[in-house]
Structure prediction request, 122 residues.
Amino acid sequence: MLQTAAGQAQAFLAAVYGGVALGLCYDVLRAWRVAMRAGRGMTGVLDAVFSLCALGIVGGVLWLAVGGEVRAYVLAGFPVGAALYAAALSRFIMKVFKKLFGLIREGFIRIASLPLIKRMFR
Prediction:
């Protein structure tokens, strides 16, 4: 499928947005892993979840932006978007989600320490 220069620019920007989405997905899962103090098994599961998310994001962008055709300028957009995300938003997102997931973890710990729950799961 032939694309005009404007279409190529739009496809590149879609891939940049896809790269930002990949970075966000990675940071959310990384914050979950850190906050929940995940071991090797959970880390492997989270890596698999990220791989599935990445496959969906990249496949979706390729399908929607260029009709499923693999183009170099589109593939170049993903690392550009991920780098922009890492430079601009990653630290802030990590702080927010680590705090959020830490609060969730503490809530689960408090619920699990209730006497009723302890009696139920002896």
